[in-house]
Every structure is written in structure tokens, then in C-alpha cells.
Amino acid sequence: MTKVLPTAQLTAEAYPKVKRNPDFKILDADDLKFFQTFLDNDELIHSSIAEETASFNQDWMKKYRGQSNLILLPKSTEKVSQILKYCNENKLAVVPQGGNTDLVGASVPVFDEIILSLRNMNKIRDFNHVSGTFKCDAGVVMRDAHKFLHDHDHIFPLDLPSRNNCQVGGVVSTNAGGLNLLRYGSLHGNVLGLEVVLPNGEVISNINALRKDNTGYDLKQLFIGAEGTIGVITGVSILAAAKPKALNAIFIGIDSFDTVQNLFLKAKNELSEILSAFEFMDRGSIECTIEYLKDMPFPLKNQHNFYVLIETSGSMKKHDDEKLEAFLSSALETKLISEGNLAKNEEEYNALWTWRKSVPPACNSYGGMYKYDMSLELKDLYSVSEAVTKRLNAAGLIGDAPKPVVKSVGYGHVGDGNIHLNIAVREFTKEIENLLEPFVYEYIASKRGSISAEHGVGFHKKGHLHYSRSDIEIRFMKDIRKHYDPNGILNPYKYV
Amino acid sequence: MTKVLPTAQLTAEAYPKVKRNPDFKILDADDLKFFQTFLDNDELIHSSIAEETASFNQDWMKKYRGQSNLILLPKSTEKVSQILKYCNENKLAVVPQGGNTDLVGASVPVFDEIILSLRNMNKIRDFNHVSGTFKCDAGVVMRDAHKFLHDHDHIFPLDLPSRNNCQVGGVVSTNAGGLNLLRYGSLHGNVLGLEVVLPNGEVISNINALRKDNTGYDLKQLFIGAEGTIGVITGVSILAAAKPKALNAIFIGIDSFDTVQNLFLKAKNELSEILSAFEFMDRGSIECTIEYLKDMPFPLKNQHNFYVLIETSGSMKKHDDEKLEAFLSSALETKLISEGNLAKNEEEYNALWTWRKSVPPACNSYGGMYKYDMSLELKDLYSVSEAVTKRLNAAGLIGDAPKPVVKSVGYGHVGDGNIHLNIAVREFTKEIENLLEPFVYEYIASKRGSISAEHGVGFHKKGHLHYSRSDIEIRFMKDIRKHYDPNGILNPYKYV
């Protein structure tokens, strides 16, 4: 299962109950001819050979695969508008696609939908270094936005492991979270304006650089996290933060999740404005990671039930170090924590982060893993992990080979109330699957949490929305979708 | 004009072109009887004597006055739901009302709309001091939310001059900005969940305390700033920030607005995470304020073209002071600024803020003022003030009595790109008015700014939306309103 498969099973075959909507037209030669009238050669890929379109049809996890033979890669908002207008009038279904790095099958076709890639819209439009407002095309790769802003003493207000591939428009369309949310807040606060092409080809452009605008409904908000179901984002205006001059980190061993919460409270009070990450990992996460990282020296002497990685970023290293040292010594003195390791330089800072960032690949290294991304009120955050472990243990599934489950572990962003649950397995079995689902979703629903904290809905979680949303909300979401896209041409078979 | 008038002119008389919508039913005895079946005595005021309903019918500025003789003050979400369901079915128009402190005539009836006051829904529902999530009824007065959170070492993420009267639900409904936006961001980022009663009585409740939730469209966002046109907010969940332990301020004299911008950049870089306000005032603002505050010693030796008030808030006073002192001395040494005064204690801190907070009453002290609230890209922020002054000067209207205009001044929140333009007058004249409008709005439109940065739309700016929004956006807003409230019973004659 760790093997890279050449291709995923066709989604249409893997999910035979999902049927192609017969209202959608099947692409024909006239359609193609029309697109060729205004798109250049490098703006259109037409091929019925699966290999030639594989990178567009198949998702990043190789779990879903569509059968589109037309990929359009327009270079301008006007061309996006012409494409959508035509598709809407002719009922041709369309999947908008950014960097195609999503984890829920949102950005690839299910059947023969035309793929509308934003990758050729990759220009930075404007930056004001005084206000920090940054405007760019939707297809700008996040890494490039980071690099540009870094060179101008600013930072893009979020970062993701997929930064080398994901695009700014995709990040906004999926309301991505990432590691900096605790400090810089969500995209609903940071996005200042959007340029969006509606299904009928109309362009709503409020891509201004204003921090405040109270002239009516904040229309851009609905497109943030809409996964391209009601319009295609072609331009983004976002607030960049000043680049911090000092970064630091501590790695801490803790006995209970209650103490993790108390330590978070202490950090909020004492590190306050310089606190930029507060991540936790349980014992199992680190046990897997110790095996995975083999020769890398572990930063603490003993093993603990929980580990916390705290990051600070500020404008003066000396001050940040003083605050962190005071924080660490008082936490040790009052026996709130058992031991802690404060990075002394950039190398140590990076090493501490390696222990956090290696948890997912470590869990995946035994064969494969079941993965959940959930948010809960902080007091309940770890309880879902305990409940799942208990359940798998009761069934006798966790242990040394030949038992199928190596470990069930929990880790995530304490500051955001977001836990990632990884069940590291030697093999995928129906028995494990049946124990996990719908149990996990029902558990989250009982605690009024979210079954998708940051990964979104896409194809994968469309049928699970009712665990986190009421019937009224779901009906309202369907109404909104229908209202914006009456022919339903945008990203069909997904979301709501 | 500074005199407090007993009552404003009836809006219906002042704006004869606005006609009552004949589709709306006129309240009758049966309606009243129905409301009395489930509302207690203290939840219903019915009177045709204007004095008895004046505080509900008339706005805070005494510019607008409605003629409602029924005020409903339900104590529960369920009762709000019953009220709206009945009104929707019977086409009775309704104005939702919070603290009735808005500045655009949004919260009072135009004709005989029933007033739905949230003031009896005033319970704090829940607070989690670890995550900082705060849940309350919509009718909780902002001052009480501040006090509660203050007692729990947190702060409400925004503050307003109207804090003693405005309500949390009203603040969210109008997307209020205030002085802390630079640090804590907008309500679109801070509001975690809302409980909203729709016009048909259905309750959409996602008043959770989750910081991340990517399960479909973020429905709550549309209600933030919707001014009660598509639903009535009855509950709010919001992220409270840790209470800063240290507050400090500097008052600075500057020669040009270019330098104001450069100083802001320097502050972003050097004060970065502790910067909590960056306010500017022009020479005229301070000249008026010096006259107004009379005996209060001015914090600087000389007069300047611009003044800046910088506030910091952080978790360690010693560190903040060091950063501020370093910032001030390097700004003086490099001659970026002419002089500055750093508060040495709380009294001095408060005194410095008095100079900023007294600008509006100072401008109003000569007789009255025309007031605009706009946002622009930072580079253009002050230009609107210069353009207006030039125009009034060219017409020979500014000067000593008997000239009607005392001064035209600009001040505001540099960090938010928000300028308040006050034209201090001895009397209101048609000539001034015709010089100001539509000139000011057209100027803002030409720079792609917002004609309402934080005050909203209401009755006052309904006709002006096209200066900041495109035809497509306005049509979309109308569609959304119609979609949520097909009978148009909520807050009619306003917004869009």
C-alpha cells in the first residue's frame, strides 16, 4: 500500500452507484472547435489517451480517477468567462482545478467533466509593501507567493505541506488551514477581495485591497471554501503579514491531555502575541516517529503520554528568548511539565519541527493508514482518539503482527481545536473499516464537532455532511448552489 | 445643531419619495392578540403615543424616525422564531433592533414596521477559558461582554465608542470595525458560529465553538454585516483574545502623509506583533481638538501637518517599552519624525488617547458636521481629504465667521486604510451639501475605495451602493436578499 500505484481505479467503477448526470452534454467536435477559436495551443489539451491526461484526471492520493479528455488552461479571466458561458449554455460539466493537491477528491472529474485548470493564470498582480496587500492570479503557486513576499519582508498568511504545488486560488477555494492559523487567523479574515467567474460567465470582481468595506453583503465569503461549486476564482487579494525576525521552538513532555490544555492556557497568557504554533502529539505518534526517524536523537530524555511543540515568532529574538525561557522554567518549577527542550539555534529549531512533521509519514510507513481530520471543542479534542483506540483494542486488532493495526494515534493543532487521527495499519481490512465508520463520524456528531476541520468535502465526504450540519443547513447549502449555478455545471457529484 | 432635539422629523415626511410597500399588512387587533398568546407583559410594548415608543422609533443621531406602535422584546430564540414565522405568513414587516446605535438609520422603522428588539436576550451562554471561545445571546451589551471576559483574563476582540449600548448581535449584524481591528482582525475571522432565525421562522444554528470547520459553505458569513435583512441573529460564538498585560502609546508629529506611511511600515516591522493601533490625525483635526480640550496640555511642543498615535499591547511591559523606545529614538535620529511623546504611565497613556478620541466631538462643537467614513488604498487615503478641502476653499466657504465651514479635517485608522472625513460647519447649507455630494462618492469610486468602511448601509447609503459596487454585485445582493426573504419582510426600504 505504500507502493506508488501507476493509476487509481476509475471513480466511475469504484463507485458504481454514482451515475453520470444524463442532462450533461457529451463533448463533441463542435465544442472543441469553439474552444479552439479563442484558446492558444498551450491553453488546450485534448486527448483520449489516459496517460496524457493522467496528471489532471487523477488526484494526488491516487484514490480517484476521472475520464476527461479535455483540459482547458486559459491565460486570462476573460477566457475563463468565455469557457464557462459556453459550458453553461451547452450544459457541459466543468471541474475547476488548481494544484490538484486536495485530499477529498474535489479537484478531479468523476466522469467526463471538462477540466478547467488555472495553472496558466500565474501572475502576481500587485503588492503594496506599506499596507501588505497582495494581489495575484488564482493559479500562482503558493511557494511563489511565499518567495515573492519573503523577498519583500512579508509572509503569505498560511503555509501548507503542499506549498510547492498548491495554488493560491485553490487554497482559497478550499479554505485551507495549515500551521499558521493560530497566529494569522483564517482566510475568511485574511482574504480582502476576490475576482470570480460565475457559471454563466459573468465576472464578479471585488478584488480590491481594502481592509474594511461595509457596502452590503460580503459576497466573496461564500466562495471561500466553496470548492469551485458556485464560481471559479481567478484572482485573489490577500493581507500579507510582516515577516517575523525571530523564530523559536520548545519541545515538551507532558503526562495528561488536561495538562496539555493548561499549558496552552499558560502559553496564551505568557507568550500571547508571539505564540505562532501549539501542536500536540500523543505517545503513539512519537513511538511511530522514533522508529521512522531511526538514528535521529530524540529531543527528550524520557517518554511521555503527550508531547507539545510550541513555536514563537516575533520581531526581536532577545525578547522572545527571554519569554520562552521564563515560560519553560516556570512550567518545570511548578511541575506542570516533566521536561522540555528549547532550540538553541536554527538547526535545533528545524530538528524539533521534524518530530512533528514526520508523524504522518511515520504512521504511513507500516503499510498504510486510515486518516481523519476533525475539529472539536478543546476539552473533547483527544477523547475521540481514546474512544477509537479503546474500540480497536476491544476487538483485539491492535498489536504485533499478524494483528492488522500497529497503532491508533492522535496529534494536531491544539490552538485550532483540530485533531488528526491516524490509524497505522499493516493492511486495510473491512473489519477495521466497519469498526471505524460510522463510529468516528457519529462520535464527532455527538460532540458537535466537525468531520472536516480543514480538508474539505469534495467527493469523499459529500455523503457525510449530516454528521456536522443540520438538515436545514444542508438544504440551504443546496439552495445556494442551485441559486448560483442553476444548471449545476460546476464540479458536479461533489460537496452538497 | 448641537442642541439635542426632542425628536427627529418623521422619515416618511423627510423622504416623501420613499413609499410604504402596500403589500405589507397593517397591524390589527388579531395580530396583537396572537403575539400576546406567547409573549409576556415585559416582552411586548404596544402604544400609539409617540413618546412611549420614541427610544425604539428614533435613531441615535436623531436623523430618522419611524412610526411603529408595536415593539416585541422576546426572551428566547424560539419566541423570535414564532414571531418571524407569523410575520412572514401575514406579511408584516419587521425591523430587527440591537442597541440602536447605528449611524446609517439601519435599526429603526421607516414606516410602521414592527420593531423586534433583542434586548431581552441578554445571557452569556458559555465561555471556555482555554480555547477563548465565548458564546452569548445576541442582546448582550458589548460592555457586559467586555466586563465578563476581562474578569476571565480575556478581551472581546473589538471595541467601540458605543460599547455601553451596542449589543453583540448588532455589532455582528453590522460588521462593526472599531479600534482593535488592526490587531485582532475582522469579525469575518473572529465569529466562530451564529444562531440565526430566518424570515420563515426556521433556525439555522451553527453556534459551535470550533475554530475550523470545512463542511460546506460558511453560511454564517453572509449574516455578518447583513444588517438584519436576511435573518435575525439570536446567538453568537466568538473568539476572545488573551488580555494583554501591558498597554503603551506614543504620540508623534509628522510633516507629510508619505512619512505617515513610512512610519507605519517601520512600525509593522519593528513593533510587529505588539502593534495594536496606528491612528492618524491631520493638522486641522488637532487644531479643532486643541480649542475643544482648552486647558489640557498638548503632548508635543510644535504643531505639525500630521499626528500619529501608536498603541502597543503585549504580554511583558519591559519588552514592549524597550521596543517602543528603540522605535522612537531611531525614528527621531533618522529624522523620519520631528518629535514624539511616549506615555510614561497609565494616566499619560489615557491622555494621549484623549487627543485622538476627542476629534469627533471637537469637530462637532462649532455647530455641526458633515461626516464620511471611507476606505481607500493606503497611498490614496489622505487624498480625499485634500480634494475636499481644495474644493471648499475654491468656493470660498472655509474661514472665520460668517463663512459656513470652520475646517474640513481627516483622521482615522491607517492600519485599516480607513479615513473619517469631518467637515466642521457653523451651519448646514445646500451649497456645502452640493459641493460635497456626489463629489465625495465619485472621488471614492474613482479610486475604487469603499463609501462605507465600517458604518454600513442602512437607509442612508442604500442609494449610494453603486459608487463602490458593480451592477453585477448589486444585482447579486438583491437576488440573495430575495432568496433568503422572498416576502421582503425583514428591514425593508434599506440596504440593497
TrEMBL record, chains A, B:
<dbReference type="GO" id="GO:0071949">
    <property type="term" value="F:FAD binding"/>
</dbReference>
<dbReference type="InterPro" id="IPR016169">
    <property type="entry name" value="FAD-bd_PCMH_sub2"/>
</dbReference>
<dbReference type="InterPro" id="IPR036318">
    <property type="entry name" value="FAD-bd_PCMH-like_sf"/>
</dbReference>
<protein>
    <recommendedName>
        <fullName>D-lactate ferricytochrome C oxidoreductase</fullName>
        <ecNumber>1.1.2.4</ecNumber>
        <ecNumber>1.1.99.40</ecNumber>
    </recommendedName>
</protein>
<dbReference type="Pfam" id="PF02913">
    <property type="entry name" value="FAD-oxidase_C"/>
</dbReference>
<dbReference type="GO" id="GO:0004458">
    <property type="term" value="F:D-lactate dehydrogenase (cytochrome) activity"/>
</dbReference>
<dbReference type="GO" id="GO:0005739">
    <property type="term" value="C:mitochondrion"/>
</dbReference>
<dbReference type="InterPro" id="IPR004113">
    <property type="entry name" value="FAD-bd_oxidored_4_C"/>
</dbReference>
<dbReference type="InterPro" id="IPR016171">
    <property type="entry name" value="Vanillyl_alc_oxidase_C-sub2"/>
</dbReference>
<dbReference type="InterPro" id="IPR016164">
    <property type="entry name" value="FAD-linked_Oxase-like_C"/>
</dbReference>
<dbReference type="InterPro" id="IPR051264">
    <property type="entry name" value="FAD-oxidored/transferase_4"/>
</dbReference>
<dbReference type="GO" id="GO:0019249">
    <property type="term" value="P:lactate biosynthetic process"/>
</dbReference>
<keyword id="KW-0285">Flavoprotein</keyword>
<dbReference type="InterPro" id="IPR016166">
    <property type="entry name" value="FAD-bd_PCMH"/>
</dbReference>
<dbReference type="InterPro" id="IPR016167">
    <property type="entry name" value="FAD-bd_PCMH_sub1"/>
</dbReference>
<dbReference type="GO" id="GO:0099615">
    <property type="term" value="F:(R)-2-hydroxyglutarate-pyruvate transhydrogenase activity"/>
</dbReference>
<keyword id="KW-0560">Oxidoreductase</keyword>
<comment type="similarity">
    <text>Belongs to the FAD-binding oxidoreductase/transferase type 4 family.</text>
</comment>
<dbReference type="Pfam" id="PF01565">
    <property type="entry name" value="FAD_binding_4"/>
</dbReference>
<dbReference type="InterPro" id="IPR006094">
    <property type="entry name" value="Oxid_FAD_bind_N"/>
</dbReference>
<dbReference type="GO" id="GO:0030447">
    <property type="term" value="P:filamentous growth"/>
</dbReference>
<keyword id="KW-0274">FAD</keyword>
<feature type="domain" description="FAD-binding PCMH-type">
    <location>
        <begin position="64"/>
        <end position="243"/>
    </location>
</feature>
